Amino acid sequence: MINEEERRRAVAELREASTGAYCHVDSLDVIANSVGVEVAGKFSHEVENETYAALADLIDRPTCHISETDHEFEDSVRCDRCRTTFNRPWEPFKYCPNCGAEVVGE
Fold first, then answer.
1. CA-CA to 15 of 20 to 30 Å: which in 59, 71, 91, 103?
2. How far separated are the first and last CA of the chain, in Å rounded?
3. What is the pLDDT of residues 70-97, one digit of tens each?
4. Closest CA to 66 of 96, 99, 91, 100
5. Helix crossing, 44-59 with 4-17: angle to 10°?
6. Which of 11, 54, 48, 6 is nearest to 26 (CA)?
7. Which pTM does this prediction carry?
8. How deeply is 2 buried, as exposed, middle or buried, from its count of CB atoms within 10 A (0-12, 13-18, 19+)?
9. Do 10 and 58 touch, CB atoms closer than 8 A?
């Protein structure tokens, strides 16, 4: 899964590529490197598959639900995606502090 820092780096590199900065480089290599796919030593179909998966991760941010736990502590909540337990925050989470998934409901 691509974290927020990697997402911002990929977007910046893709925007730079859109200016023609890499006009003498194969576009698949530029896109692959922008989204963190290593190109060296791989067949083109491997690079394509990994690049498509990385682009999907970049576009489709994972989601989760935060729900109360069954622990003896009343103020505990859990992310249903990564199963990490947290103390209940003062304000509802927008993103899971552990896995970065967007919270779509509690």
1. 103
2. 22
3. 766 678 899 999 999 988 888 889 999 9
4. 96
5. 120
6. 48
7. 0.58
8. buried
9. yes
